[in-house]
Amino acid sequence: MSRVVKLKHVKREIELDDFSQPTDNQEIVKIISSKGNNLHEVESALGMNKFLVSMPTKFRKNVWIKRGNFVIVERIPEGDKVKAEIVRILTDEHIKEFTKDGIWPKEFTKKRCHEESDDDLDNFKGNLNRKTLDVSEEESSSSESE
């Protein structure tokens, strides 16, 4: 199978509207970082523990995942360091469907409150790499009148 044909099949599999739920030995995890050699460190919703997962051969050099993406992994019983293998890479449509079905882990929900208060603005120091010009109001008003 040529590289182009393989890429086409892998992309089709990822974009396929397969919204099947994870089985008993599968779980939804979040990618924390890439460790090289097709290994990724992930964070589990169950207990929030971290472990390594491997990317299967069909995804290598065809699909890139980055920090913050979600995947479904299947546990490897004999794994010491690498404890699971990636089964499916989740897209935004998968996440919406899983949330609607109620199987999305509560630990991974995106609830961010951006409440600004005056205290937050007082602690803002600006760019420390630039010189600040202290212009008093009297100097600026006298230069404007001239």
Automatic annotation (TrEMBL):
Source superkingdom: Eukaryota
Domain S1-like: 25-88
Keyword match Ribonucleoprotein: no
Biased composition (Acidic residues): 135-146
GO MF, one annotated term: translation initiation factor activity
Pfam families: eIF-1a
InterPro entries: EIF1AD (IPR039294), NA-bd_OB-fold (IPR012340), RNA-binding_domain_S1_IF1 (IPR006196), TIF_eIF-1A (IPR001253)
Chain residue ranges for the region called Disordered: 115-146
GO CC annotations on file: nucleus
Annotated Gene3D superfamilies: Nucleic acid-binding proteins
Keywords noted in UniProt: RNA-binding
PANTHER family registered for this protein in UniProt: RNA-BINDING PROTEIN EIF1AD-RELATED, TRANSLATION INITIATION FACTOR-RELATED
Family named by the database record: Belongs to the EIF1AD family.
Protein name: Probable RNA-binding protein EIF1AD
Origin species: Clunio marinus
